Amino acid sequence: MSSIAPRELLLGSFKAAVAAADPLHIVPQHLPRPPKGRTLVVGAGKAAASMALAVEQHWPAEAALEGTVITRYGHGLLTNRINVIEAGHPVPDEAGETAAKRIFESVKRLGRDDLLLVLVSGGGSALLSLPVESISMADLKTVTQELLRCGAIIQEINTVRKHLSLIQGGRLAAACKARILALVISDVTGDDPTHIASGPSVPDPTTYQDALDILARYDCKIPAAVRTTLERGVRGEIPETPKPNDKVFANTENRVIATAQQSLQAASKFFETNGVRAAILGDSVTGEAREVAKVYGALAREVKMHAQPWQPPVALISGGECTVTVRGQGRGGRCAEFLVSLVDDLQGADGIHALACDTDGIDGTEDNAGAVCAPDSPTRAAKLGLNAGKFLANNDGYSYFSALGDLVVTGPTRTNVNDYRVILIV
After folding, report:
1. Domain 6-17+261-425: which CATH class?
2. Cis peptide bond upstream of 90, omega within 30
3. Fewer CB atoms near the end CB (10 Å): N or C, the chain?
4. Domain at 22-258: CATH architecture
5. Alpha helices in 124-193 (DSSP H)
6. Per-residue pLDDT reduced to its tens digit, 131-181
7. d(CA 186, CA 21)
């Protein structure tokens, strides 16, 4: 076993996972040669600013380069040739709408000798928001808030957003005459580009009917204009999003350059280097965060009590994107929810430590990436009059770990390959 304390091992593994998805290191190796004409850079996501900076740092000084990318408030960086605009996330706002409109108009002016370089990362769906003419930004905000509240998975949320957008669901590519190369940092399970930032340059296999079905499944309360728009689409009165094999994608390449699996492998290597066996349980774990925690808690107890299927010390690593159905009024995203549920389930089981953090540095809408827990978490909490089960019932993992001093605060990492979870059994 490593001489490094469990908490430091957990934090070090998270740092390794994030570093493996750093755009400043990844983007340069995927840059194309400059075209005969102009190069326009557009993009959206939590990694957009760092991706744009990487392009600037490695693009020939004599080659034309311009563009606009949109990132979340507080995630911007200083650039010289590419404009970085900050906007609202996870709920879209007018700043994102204005920037998206600028991007859309600039793309339509490109010619066949030009290059459109699209920089796509998680968070882009909310940031690259250009609603169709029949709905307002207020309507789009309402729909987004409803979908976030009800526990819909990101693929479902994006299916709806694509059909309310002028620019997502492949419509950016459909408006472009130039060659398109999209560099994509994946924050979705399965790494399908159509679901990342709602696929502005990717064929969309979903339909207006799919969008309506999702809203009905979760009993979402939506504005009348939204329902009317989707119903008109079902009747064929509004064109569908471009589908697979559509000729508008003939000159488009969507290249995924960073994934959760790569980050999990980097974390695994960190543990192995420090004398701890690592087991990757999957990069596409989904489901209610509190329920996933119970399954992982049972596995951790099996390892600790019976040394199977692995003998301690071992780190159980996983990625993906769990969901939270909001029932309470508390603070905290899916990582805090997972971890407070795990604490409640383990009840201080000896030798079991854990960390759950979002690789973008923001868990939900709070200022933390996630949190850590240890066997003594329940004991320390009890001294403060805190019970994990009560905080879980109120969706308030943030407040629980804040009181214990166990939040992990990194600030914006300017990348995003989804959640990172590890349970360390010693």
Report:
1. alpha beta
2. yes
3. N
4. 3-Layer(aba) Sandwich (3.40)
5. 124-127, 137-150, 154-162, 171-174
6. 999 999 999 999 999 998 888 888 999 999 999 999 999 999 999 999 999
7. 10
